[in-house]
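Q: Could you fold this chain for me?
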Amino acid sequence: MLDGEHDLIANMSNLVSLIFNSDQNINGTTYYRLKNGELILGPFQGKPACVHIP
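A: Sure. Below is the predicted structure, expressed as structure tokens.
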């Protein structure tokens, strides 16, 4: 799925989707990016998540 794709956001998106859809016991899968001293929501699957975490 990731072979040949070099775009980081596209790969992150497909990976969280793969993880989320492979296990019915998880609530969601999320990437957070560290930017300017806070965590900012990245690609995710699942219920809505916090956008900024100080």
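A (continued): The mean pLDDT is 93.
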